[in-house]
Design brief:
Strand order of the largest sheet: 3-2-4-1-10-9-11-15
Distance between the termini: 10 Å
Structural class: alpha/beta
Oligomer: single chain
Largest sheet: 8 strands, antiparallel
Amino acid sequence: MCGIVGYIGRRDATPILIQGLKRLEYRGYDSFGIATVGSAIEVYKKMGRISDGEAGAADLRGCTGIGHTRWATHGEPNDINAHPHTDCGEKIAVVHNGVIENYSELKRQLQERGHIFRSETDTEVIAHLIEEHYDGDLLAAVSAILPLLEGSYAVLAIAADTQRIVAARDASPLVLGVGDAEIFAASDMTPLLEYTERVIYLEDGDVADITPERLDIYHGGRKVERPIELINWCVEDTRKGGFAHYMLKEIFEQPQSFYETIRAGIDDHVRKVVLETDEITLVACGTSYHTALIFKYLAESLCGIPVRVEMGSEFKYFIPPLHGLVIAVTQSGETADTIAALKMAKARNCPTLAITNVQGSTVTRVADKTLLMRAGPEIGVAATKSYTAQLAALMQIVNVRCEGAFDDILSHAHLAISEVLLHDIKDAVTLCSKAEHVFFVGRGPFYPVSMEGALKMKEISYVHAEGYAAGELKHGPFALLTPETPVVAICTPGPTYSVMASNIKEMKARKAPVIALGVDGDKELAEIVDIFIPIPNTHLLVQVLTISVVLQLLAYHTACALQRDVDKPRNLAKSVTVE
């Protein structure tokens, strides 16, 4: 969720921290703040977006500093609850991503010992605990208090009398960037791209002692070496490139990211485990859950292999019987619930595979094997190109199980995606932007496609939307159909075409306006609906992709018509790293 950044080196820290927080703002944007080591600990923090309040931080001085952009967990968004947090004497400052589950008990104990708290956050207990153990050695103080913390954390700490940052992580991501006599720290690599291509991924339980000249990493009190890895992303990938929003840019990048993921292929080790398994379980959350459901329909109908799909957030508490390959699907590689489920699968001796967009992320270190998406950085909170890149990876697994039957189809699918990017959907946008509720319906693999279309609509336009299997509307939701309730229906040739057309007629009989997505040239469908959006008449695998992209565009343009903040929808963050 929240984003943290740190810098120590030869330059003024403040501009680097502010720019880094802007790169991380997709992880949370309720409030922000920075602290630097000048003549003392200097702190500036503010409720709201960084662009609205960054001028107030301009006077902070020092070449060592930490920063934070917040997605609120404990305490409402305001100036006081914004990070960084300090100790009683304001000589220690910390930023934190994660949740300290036993903070109430720790806070009570600290208050009994005379500590004065200013905020409602769980994070502030960390600063006061460090204060109690600090005698000039920040590394020793941080190391001493970490065993007291229950929950998850990525922490950066600084002290007034030393040019040093101490970093620690457990169940929250933290990456270090290695420059020339300077070190960077961040929740992910996006703030580092302008300064270095060399990164170190800290592992759970690591504590890093950082000065401009030296970087030492400890685990369990012993010094350890973590490899320096090279980033294959560039800073241009994180810029809008002339588009009005990151989301629109990323929608238009989908032909390339899908093609790159297909072109990268599957290595022999992953191919072997996919071919040897007789059952597959997928664990995912949010949009990734929808791609997993699409895979289930495709794999079972095309390959005949049993597939089950589990929500990561439910898996931890209601563990299903596990047999065969377990696949974790997560764009960031840091989704807390998905990682916890993957660890449980490993504990039951299941072979595990991660499908992710970020090499070096936690899930890649937990799973036995990794199938890497090639989407590049995705800044918009709503998943778009990562969704189709996940489908590219999962469709390759289907193709492997079907002995390469879809090689040609997958290698040319990006051309069909490009074709639908310029579709005229303004009539559908006008209809949806006037509605309070919208239903999305489909059958077979288009049922989870409709769920994803509804998710995109609700999360960026704030129009209430629900995705249903079309046959289920008669089991209750029909009661909600009115002339003011549009239905987006997916109706393509195949075994369900005739029954889907009947469902549409039933909706029309209730006077609900219908927007239908069907193949180009389907005159019968076009005649019975209010708005017809044609897609290329291609293979089922490609139709899943093209219809998904049209639904992304429908949500995007509806949100723009309603003047929503497309890239930063309210209350949401890109990466869910806390339970």
